[in-house]
Amino acid sequence: MAEVVLEHVMKNYGSLYAVNDVSFTVNDGEFVALVGPSGCGKTTTLNLIAGLLPISGGDIAIGNRVVNDLDPKDRDIAMVFQNYALYPNKTVFSNLAFPLQMRKLPKAEIASKVAEAARILDITHLLERKPRELSGGQQQRVALGRALVRDPLVFLMDEPLSNLDAKLRVQMRSEIKRFHHNLGATIIYVTHDQLEAVTMADKMAVMNGGFLQQYDTPAQVFANPVNMFVASFVGSPAMSLISLQAVSRGTEVVLQSAEGWELPLSPANARKALSSTTKNVVLGARHSTLKLHKMQVSGSVPGKIYTVEPTGDVTFAQVFIAEAVVNISVDPSVHLSPDEPVWIEFDQERVHLFDAETTSALTVR
Ligand SMILES: Nc1ncnc2c1ncn2[C@@H]1O[C@H](COP(=O)(O)OP(=O)(O)OP(=O)(O)O)[C@@H](O)[C@H]1O
Ligand SMILES: [Mg+2]
């Protein structure tokens, strides 16, 4: 296995920059998820690493070797795509053996490599079947096996689970995690599903509009999103964002809504709010950090129930606060009706503040 280093990587199609000055390092044996909305440049980034597209600028290194000008076949990578296209007329064994036969490996070595891959992926009992005799998840494992037998430096996977139904996707998620764990493989995994990234990866690279927004562990990205885009992309339901104005009141700083209510800030949050380029500040809060009250309590702000979504274990209330819709999780036993007035309490230790002009997270320097 090997590390993969991207330095200032660019890919443009005329004036469109599909990948714009992207730099990150995938350590040897790490599982990195590339995430972001449709069109943000995930597949392009993966194809640049694979060598399926020429880069317009920057450098890509795989295992200490700059591969900018190397053909895909010389990069020692294996790709698994969304459409895994197995050979329909070949058995599972032959599907796995084919890439090795192409490399003219001795028969005995092919047989042992296929047996090993089949064991890791638990498809030994399927080796004599044809792809049409397999379930979607089994076919996906054969596609993984075909990458695995090649014993590459790096696995590149582009939305390999998106053709599977929701239940199978969750199951394959843990299988790929085991695959990574058992092999200690370097994996770069593209998905638009932030939940897949958060649950599977050691690190996630969040992209938007060709730019890398944040590269860190899922826990760090979740706890300390660097800007409003990352804050609202990672986490489900999304972090709620409320546009307010920071106003000094003597020694205090409060956040003021257009409706007139004021939320006093803790000293640490006050310093953050004052570092904003303008008075316009965005308050961010995750559903689990908010408390909903049916009566006004000190430090709470008024809102109105928009919708209520019971999910069984937990009920999600959407509450209108200062022209924003805010997600709050409440106990299923709490009865709430649309348009009911409620009061929301923020946890000062766990709110996020963003500069409304730059969209960056405000931090205390
Ligand atoms: N051959 C091409 N010519 C021109 N523009 C392209 C080409 N290939 C991709 N693009 C553009 O580059 C941008 C990034 O595309 P890319 O396929 O990397 O997105 P993605 O993040 O993988 O999206 P998705 O989640 O929909 O697969 C998009 O705006 C796309 O339209
Ligand atoms: Mg894509």
Automatic annotation (TrEMBL):
It holds the Pfam family ABC_tran. Keywords: ATP-binding, Cell membrane, Membrane, Nucleotide-binding, Translocase, Transport. One of its GO terms (cellular component) is ATP-binding cassette (ABC) transporter complex, substrate-binding subunit-containing. It is found in: Cell inner membrane. Its main location: membrane. Residues 4-234 form the ABC transporter domain. One of its GO terms (biological process) is carbohydrate transport. PANTHER family: MALTODEXTRIN IMPORT ATP-BINDING PROTEIN MSMX, TREHALOSE IMPORT ATP-BINDING PROTEIN SUGC. Belongs to the ABC transporter superfamily. This is Sugar ABC transporter ATP-binding protein. It comes from Devosia riboflavina.
